[in-house]
Amino acid sequence: MQSKKDNCFSLLIVSHSNDIKQLKVPTWIPKLLILFILCTILSISYLIYSYNYIKTDYTAKVKELNSLKEINKKQKNEIKDLKMKTEEIEKKLASISELEKTIKDMVGLKDSKNNETTRVTINASRGGSLAFRATSKDNIDTAQISSDFDNLSELLDQSKEDLAKLKNDVKERLRYLEAKPDLMPTWGRITSGFGYRKNPFGRGREFHYGIDISNKYGTSIKAAGTGVVTYAGYNGGYGKVIMINHGYGYQTVYGHNNKLLVRTGERVKKGQVIAKMGNTGKSTGPHLHFEIRYYGKPINPKNILNNFK
């Protein structure tokens, strides 16, 4: 029971012996107990909510961290792959540059800053052959970069093949130019040209299949082009004569020599001294009778020789 005067609860306790005891409880105690219980429930609820929130947030962060780790790992692998591709491209560039240098050396060209072949330049960084930089707003598209590198690698392979083919073409062209009998075989005065002329040993006219170059005894006779000596010896009206097969359909004849300096089967180079001028065979004085034959047919040396006078 509650007394209004005392503002408290009165509790009557009756024992088995019918003794009655009265216990007075102030009203603020149950109120405080109820308040405590409510506060406890609210606190537990808040703790449970906070725990679940933190757990959810933690799980999300862990998941995000794992995702970032995977992305980081993937990017490291992609960058490693790009570095390998970069090194491969640099090797190809070096190979192409070497081929280019070889070709230029073959044809006697020098590097010029104004006429330099376009090259791809890749700047090296501390960590490797390729440096990637990006701001917070820019993302590196490694897939696109890898695709670009693949395309570049294919272009470099094609360029290398083209240069290799060019090298072979240049080498073949240089062989041809070395073999082509366009070098004046000696110096002196041209006393008789190619074509019909008055017969120096009789009446009438005759066809002259070469040119005659007159000079003093012992004047050096040079090979007009690189080739193989097919004949070196005495041959009737030619006297002491040398015949050279230059390939590409060209043959040359050097007649009336005083002394032969090469033998049959010997390979000679353009400009090499092969004989000394003389007056052997059917000749009216010391001179060189020089013929150029193309696939067996005599042609006018004037149309082939450089600096023909």
From TrEMBL:
Q: Name one GO molecular function term.
A: metalloendopeptidase activity
Q: Tell me the keywords, alphabetical order.
A: Coiled coil, Membrane, Signal, Transmembrane, Transmembrane helix
Report domain M23ase beta-sheet core positions.
Answer: 207-301
Q: Which CDD domains match?
A: M23_peptidase
Spans through the membrane: 33-54
Q: Which domain of life is it from?
A: Bacteria
Q: Which residues form a coiled coil?
A: 65-102, 149-180
Which InterPro entries does this one have? Cell_wall_metabolism_enzyme, Dup_hybrid_motif, M23ase_b-sheet_dom
What is the name of this protein? M23ase beta-sheet core domain-containing protein
